[in-house]
Amino acid sequence: MASIQTNIDIAPATNAPTGSLLVSLAPLASDALEATLANLALAFPSQTVLVATPDSAPNLSSGGPLRLLPYTPTAVSTTPWVLTAADYLNAFALVQENQASACLLLGAESHTLHPEAIHALAAAATTSDLAVARYNLGPREGLVNSAILYPVTRALFAARPRFPLAIDLGLSSRMAQRLASEAQRFTAGNQNDALIWPVAAAASANFTITEIDVGTRTLPQPAAPDLNSLLAQIAGSLFTYVDAKATFWQRARTAQAASPIIQIAPPEEHPADVSSMIDAFHIAYTNLHEIWSLVLPPNSLLGLKRLSAMPPASFRMPDSLWARIIYDFILAYRLRTINRGHLLGALTPLYLAWVASHLLLISSGIAPEKHIEELAAVFEADKPYLVSRWRWPDRFNP
Amino acid sequence: MWQQVELALSQSAHRVLFKLASFLPALVALFLAVVVLTAIGAGLSALLHRILTSVRFDERISRNQVGSVSDWAPSHSPTALVARTAFWACVVVGVFIGVSAFDAAYPGESQISLFVLPYLAHSVGAIVLLIAGTIIARFLARSVLIGAVNAKLQYARFLSMGVKWLVLVLTAAMVLDHLQIGGVVVELAFGILFGGIVLTLSLAVGLGSRDIVSRSLERNTDLASDGLPGDPESRSSMSETLRHF
User: Fold this and answer.
1) Could you give the ipTM of this predicted complex?
2) pTM of the model
């Protein structure tokens, strides 16, 4: 991409005006950085904005609204595809140093964000504590988020943002401080790549949350896309957070009202090939049944038995079964029924079964978002099940 | 003659009763030592349990450790592990003291403790080896089972059982060697058995993983012909791929 003169100053931290907006960028390649700066200049044509980047600052002409702030990160993250504890700690350090009133945290590949989306996020960050991006993804993207992260966050924390682990966030200064204090517990133990859950943290602190539709965006992918280890990492982090915030989510509360965006999608021309996922589930059902029986109650095991007997064309996992499976796994994670690594490994084939079921459903004409919203509603309706099993785990032990 | 027989019988009966009578105090000393130390162990265990529960030992351990002790501890409670360890340590010490007391209380010059105590120490080591080996075997078996299932290997259960028995056979050989039972026979039998299991597993993995290797090669070939994942040209084929994240 051609270099664009964006009228950027390189600002020393001490001269930064108070009450300004700080934009914290992830490490970007030079052309991506230039593109991002160009988008920022378009998003904030008449507003002084501090742009902090861990990369070396490009040599550009002076004068203009953007003030570039190269910095050395306090903590370094080696996981660029998701925001980690190190990112939140660095962001808060920058907010503090520059006395910014709001902070925009933009993840990797931020040059694909539209200037309007950036502006909307920034505007939301000045009026609410947490502004979360909502991405327009295809039906085969963000499946872990659709299957686990969104339904669990919505049901337990009564927070509706569609992407609880979004990589583009707008934070107020107090939200940045709160996330940094949570991040510090991990970075102090040299766990810079630990995941933080901003939506759940905001909900548990009774902070205001706004969701901004940012349209399409290229989401960075993990360097080594091993589903087993990544699912274990993300699900394990979420389950740990749920365990830590048990006193909050056990109190009944209703989610903030919102109008979900439901699109009527035509059936896919090329339905996804789910045979490998169904095969993986069948292999797992044969071999892992004993492990699942340590975690799941008889009803869920019966549901899985019926699922294993279904022909591939009509392979359909009921939403209620999936919700109870996730809740039982969360409980087993807390009780350490089996080794946590083993528990999360045993979840992978069940997740693949859900994905296969979801893809077959949407290939029949059901809108993907409609199914996800129905699934989230089932998670909400089944929350009392989790609460009762959490409080009285000995009342029913599989 | 019958008088001599009667005299011999009464003298031998008297000797046996005398030996038994001199044996009893030593036995009582052994029994008392074990009982007293067991009672002390039970008290110490209860005290430790109460102290560790009051300082929330379990929660501190689970918060501070990544690979947690809780996964290995009985009832997933490090407190229970510490308490039970203290109890059984007191029982073992009681047995050692009891054997020494038996030796001291037993009249005569036969120093039984010189033979019994080292063997008791070896026995304790063997029991610890057996427990550790069993735990490791079960953990590894389950890890291999889950890993093999997620790798869609049809023989996952076979692989898991092979690993489990491999570790158990190794543990049994180490225990028998530690107890100095069997000698060369055990070593030879272990070598043959272990080698047989490894050979069987190697054949199973080698023959069974042909599909995985060929799939992996096909995948590498597809990636090379379709171009880099970021290329626009590859998007038509990539559109059918799933993105879990």
Assistant:
1) 0.84
2) 0.82
